[in-house]
Design goal:
389 residues, alpha/beta, Rossmann fold, 2 domains, five-stranded mixed sheet, 12 helices, binds nicotinamide-adenine-dinucleotide
């Protein structure tokens, strides 16, 4: 029962993405997915990804991971994931808005604030969530709780945008580093992916005294042994679209970046970037999975055998869905919380979850991933038994 999804929906969305008048522009058909894995503990919850490589297999795996994440952090949600196979860099903002709204029109029967609540992921952001909210509200009345990760002006939560990177990866990286006696101050950190999660992670680790020695995006990486200025990198990306050519850095490929000597390696981009081809060459002491499923199963075994500690995705990046839950609660209450309240609750809960997983791992003599799965699967099974699913 837990191996297969509760429901899988695929929709086709015809669009003329480069249309300038009524008749021109090539007609393209985009395929969108929503996989709802399990809802024993509450409504389905999970991100929406816009990326050319999106496919049903990937969305299935990510939906299942969401079931374990929401259970691990003990919030009343199940797990889902969705996406559209699309290269958003080739679309105008207007075409992206139409594509998003048509996706919602077709998926509306399986969505709902007590049924399934999407959120941002790769290639989507608060603006995309605002378009989703608008389209859903047209036929259901104003429903801010239909999505999380919205702009603040439409019922978004303070702290949501930076929740995954800022509060969590950095916070959990700090705790895990402490456990292996690695001071974060002056630690060298390499981050793959400089989007929402990668940027906020980098920014927060710098405030903790770490030095970001290499960063990358889909085009490639940049490196500076004395430490990259994150604000300058962000400005450079805002101006040029990519990290490439960042002054004061030398360029390298994503493959080279992952094999650099460093204290902490943070994959914050896509799946499977640490795999059989490079797991023997990883030179970090700690790997923190900011991305979902960035380390393949066999590579995980290799890293463990080589004595490299891995903080698994379902623990490391769970702050995003935790603050999404806080956002949903604020929408239900129609009462926004202060930024400090959100961050304090986030840190308190994550601290408890990390300690529970670490203590279980030590008791059982297993790694953090196995212990995290044991807690999460136990909670889902108990809900299934109680409800007589
Ligand atoms: P994003 O779209 O904001 O950024 C993605 C970054 O990765 C960009 O810099 C992009 O150029 C880069 N990238 C894309 N393909 C790449 C490749 N093949 N090689 C190297 N870099 C590549 O996405 P995000 O929201 O930062 O998400 C990053 C990861 O974190 C994903 O795995 C996502 O599922 C996971 N995650 C995100 C959240 C969230 O709150 N946004 C929460 C939990 C987990």
């Amino acid at each position: 029962m837990l191996l297969s999804a509760f429901r899988e929906t695929a929709v086709s969305i015809p669009l003329r993405p480069h249309r300038h008048s009524d008749n021109d522009g090539e007609l393209r058909t985009y395929i969108g997915y929503r996989v709802q894995h399990n809802h024993a503990r509450g409504p389905f919850k999970g991100g929406l990804r816009f990326h050319p490589s999106v496919n049903l297999g990937e969305i299935r795996a990510l939906a299942q991971l969401m079931t374990w994440k929401t259970a691990l952090v003990d919030i009343p949600f199940g797990g889902a994931k969705g996406g559209i196979a699309v290269d958003t860099t080739q679309l105008s903002a207007h075409a992206l808005e139409i594509l998003t709204k048509r996706f919602v029109q077709k998926m509306a029967p399986v969505l709902g604030m007590h049924q399934d609540i999407p959120a941002p992921d790769i290639g989507t952001n608060p603006q995309v969530m605002a378009w989703m909210l608008e389209e859903y509200s047209k036929s259901h009345g104003y429903t801010p709780g239909i999505v999380t990760g919205k702009p603040l002006e439409l019922g978004g939560s303070a702290g949501r945008l930076e929740a995954t990177g800022h509060g969590v990866v950095a916070y959990l990286a700090g705790k895990a580093a402490q456990d292996i006696h690695l001071p974060v101050k002056d630690a060298s950190v390499v981050i793959q992916g400089f989007g929402n999660v990668g940027f906020h992670t980098a920014q927060h680790l710098v405030t903790m005294g770490a030095k970001i020695t290499a960063l990358s995006d889909a085009r490639g990486g940049v490196r500076c042994e004395t430490g990259i200025d994150i604000a300058q990198a962000q400005r450079h990306v805002a101006d040029s679209g990519w990290l490439e050519g960042l002054p004061g850095t030398e360029s390298l490929s994503n493959a080279e970046l992952l094999e650099l000597p460093c204290d902490i390696l943070i994959p914050a981009a896509v799946e499977g970037t640490i795999n059989c081809d490079n797991s023997e060459a990883i030179q970090a002491r700690l790997v923190v999975e900011a991305a979902n499923i960035p380390v393949t199963h066999l590579a995980d075994t290799t890293l463990r055998e080589r004595g490299i500690t891995v903080v698994p995705d379902l623990l490391a990046n769970v702050g995003g869905v935790l603050v999404s839950y806080y956002e949903w609660v604020q929408n239900l209450q129609e009462f926004p919380w202060e930024y400090d309240t959100v961050i304090q609750r986030l840190e308190r809960r994550l601290g408890r979850v990390y300690t529970q997983v670490r203590d279980l791992a030590q008791q059982r003599g297993v790694d953090l991933r196995t212990a995290a799965y044991e807690v999460a699967i136990g909670r889902v099974n108990r809900a299934i038994d109680l409800r007589g699913f």
